[in-house]
Amino acid sequence: MRRALLAATLLAASVLGANSAKADPDNFTEVERGKYLAIAGDCMACHIGADGKSMSGGHLLETPFGKISVPNITPDEETGLGLWSAEDFHRAMHEGKRPDGTHLYPAFPYPDFTKISRADNDAIFAYLQALPPVHNRVDRDTLPFPFNIRMLMAGWNMLNFEPGEFRPDPQKSPEYNRGAFLVEGPAHCGLCHTPRNIMGGDKDSELLQGATLQGWFAPNLTMDKRLGLGDWSEEELIAYLRTGRNDRAAASGPMAEVVAYSTSQMTDADLKAIAVYLRENGRAATTSGNTTPLAADDSRMRTGEAIYADTCKACHVADGSGVSRMFPRLANNQLVQQGDPTGVLRVILQGAQSAATPLSVTAPSMPSLGWRLNDQQVADVATYIRNAWGNAAPAVTADQVRKMRELTAVRPN
Q1: With CB atoms counted within 10 Å of each terminal CB, which end of the chain scores lower, N or C?
Q2: pLDDT tens digit string along 220-254?
Q3: 94 carries a ligand binding annotation
Q4: Does 135 count as an annotated binding residue?
């Protein structure tokens, strides 16, 4: 009952445009609403402190332009947001600016957060102000020259940022609009899943078509059947967001954090709304092309098949069908068929840990294989996986593996 009430409150505030209220950390209802919005925004995944429980920040976030230290957003007066006002917070979320007017970097996804209403921002701020303050001074100037010049962001914003709250589409259902608000706003899915231009802004023409970020590949979320979610049912999408896995995929890397800290704690109604939005919004996507799989008698395929039989078959099964909700199937797997093999290579070299969630407490893991396979062997088994059982994707080269090995620091014996 409480979850249904909370979902109704959020829908009214976020989609129908509730009036702004003053942020009040002593207002339980406001704090609870803000907490839910902070969960939907996955704040903990980025701002988690060294203590593993507070949002005191401090770790370095990798970007194409260097590493940015994540700020402390607890209400500590010296090192956090303790001296900020609700207006200061709204300005940061809506305009990407600090209280003194200096620009924030879009690693903080204000281009998405700008869609959040003032009322919702006040609720989030009330929640953050209700947290225990943690003293943790963070160096906020870690980017190399010239990217450490914040005034450059004024030009970036002119080219890549348009402030403005979310406006529902009157031609769509309330459920679709709720999903659109979540995906485009607080959940900021496009930050990872949309390719970037040379300046680091979104390529709007390739919305949610997959992108490389922090050494991982965030897959295509359009309705493309080979590369995206076109073959996924609504139930499969909801199960993945709720538990971190379904028969097709298991969340790992940054997505495992999204599931653990965010989507696994969201209401069933909101997860369904996200699924409805993704399925309707991306229905016309056609990015597959006409990729032809490598011939089975190609030398790379034969070598890769032998490595797969020796190393991978026990979990993923000879025909690539996997084990339901434990080890994802590789046949007709959208991630392994992406044009960019980053995701596959990262998992093969480094291994992966799935998300543990309240409804799926066991978090299966895949061991690192980088220590026992050389670059060419990794390339061959990746090529085989990407072209067996009806899959089709470009062959992987040893040079691509070498570059990923440098990133992950996994060395062969």
Answers
A1: N
A2: 999 998 899 998 999 999 999 999 988 888 888 89
A3: no
A4: no
